[in-house]
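Student: Please help interpret what follows.
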Amino acid sequence: MLTANFLETFTREFKSFIHDVKNDFTNILADIHNFLNRFMSDDVLTVFCIAIGAFVLILIFRAVINKR
């Protein structure tokens, strides 16, 4: 019974922790978006994020190819 109670409590606390991490991550992204929205429109932000993502993927691809 003690083990079942421990597992139940651990599971509940772990789910709560994961939920808190998700909320913190969402809040950080929302704050960054609000800050950048003061200076750029959403269309410019989208193009900027796509360009950064493409650059990161190129770097990863080059690292994988050069590893051989």
In short: The helical segments are 2-37, 42-67. DSSP finds two helices and no strands in the chain. The CA atoms of residues 57 and 63 lie 10 Å apart. The mean pLDDT is 91.
